[in-house]
Specification:
Blueprint (H helix, E strand, L loop, with lengths): L7 E3 L3 H6 L6 E6 L6 H4 L8 H21 E11 L2 E3 L2 E3 L14 E9 L15 E8 L19 E3 L15 H11 L5 E4 L6 H8 L3 E5 L3 H12 L3
Parallel strand pairs: 1-10, 2-3, 2-9, 6-8, 9-10
Antiparallel strand pairs: 3-7, 4-5, 6-7
Helix pairs in contact: 4-5
The structure holds S-adenosylmethionine.
């Protein structure tokens, strides 16, 4: 049993970590799962085959059960995932919408995070230059500040380039994505959770905004990197 303190990143599996959090205790969750990264997540399948898919979707189901339990009634989740290519074909993540525990949530918005550039030299498809952010809640009672001062605050298409210097993680999220969410949805005294903290982007930006945060990260190296990153902000 771990006594959870605010403003820490815990080196542990997120499902085990969330079990230690009280019901309806989190205001905003901003997170990106390991994109089918078996090694990072510690699943037992070895191939990206049907068994892997079964394990991955079962993991997602358990994760959404806990997320639903710990989210406040007026809380919001921003769940970032992207399409992949496999054998030169596109594999979208829309299957996640059919995971049983995902369906408990209200799907409020389907956000396209557009970035610059092409990551595909084949020239045999349109560029995969975007990611998806599922915006989920438990109720319609959510805070979205239209007067927060940014252009088009309620647009579902966000342009945020990957202008990250000194990259700390292979799938590091630009701080601009988290800043946009917290600018529109943040209120005093909230707690922001990232269950796949990686290099600590969500937690670092939450700290910058003076909000409480909690992170879970299974890889001890990334956990240390994230803690150092946040420590340097003191
Ligand atoms: C897509 S990355 C997150 C990157 C992060 N948003 C950032 O800006 O650095 C996913 C992270 O989840 C971690 N992870 C994988 N399985 C996990 C689990 N079961 N519990 C907690 N963390 C996990 C991986 O080690 C990886 O660092």
């Amino acid at each position: 049993m771990v006594k959870m303190e605010l403003n820490k990143i815990y080196n542990m599996d997120c499902i085990e970590g969330m079990k230690e959090l009280p019901d309806e205790s989190m205001d905003i969750v901003i997170t990106s799962p390991p994109y089918e990264d078996i090694s990072g997540a510690g699943y037992s399948a070895v191939n990206k085959d049907i068994l892997f898919f079964k394990l991955y979707s079962e993991f997602m189901d358990k994760m959404f059960i806990e997320l639903y339990r710990i989210l406040k009634k007026d809380g919001q989740i921003f769940f970032n995932i992207k399409s992949k290519t496999h054998n030169s074909e596109l594999r979208t993540p829309h299957w996640i919408e059919f995971v049983a525990a995902f369906k408990q949530f209200k799907l409020k918005s389907y956000i396209i995070w557009k970035y610059a550039g092409s990551f595909d030299s084949s020239k045999k498809r349109f560029h995969l230059d975007y990611e998806i952010i599922y915006h989920l809640s438990k109720s319609d009672d959510i805070y979205l500040n239209e007067g927060c001062g940014i252009k088009d605050p309620l647009s579902s298409v966000w342009y945020v380039p990957h202008n990250i210097q000194d990259r700390l993680h292979p799938t590091q999220m630009p701080e601009g994505v988290v800043e946009r969410i917290l600018t529109v949805c943040g209120q005093p005294n909230i707690t922001v959770l990232d269950i796949f903290a990686g290099s600590g982007t969500t937690c670092a930006v939450a700290k910058k905004f003076n909000y409480n945060y909690i992170g879970f990260e299974i890889n001890p190296e990334y956990c240390k990197i994230a803690e150092n990153r946040i420590g340097r902000m003191l």
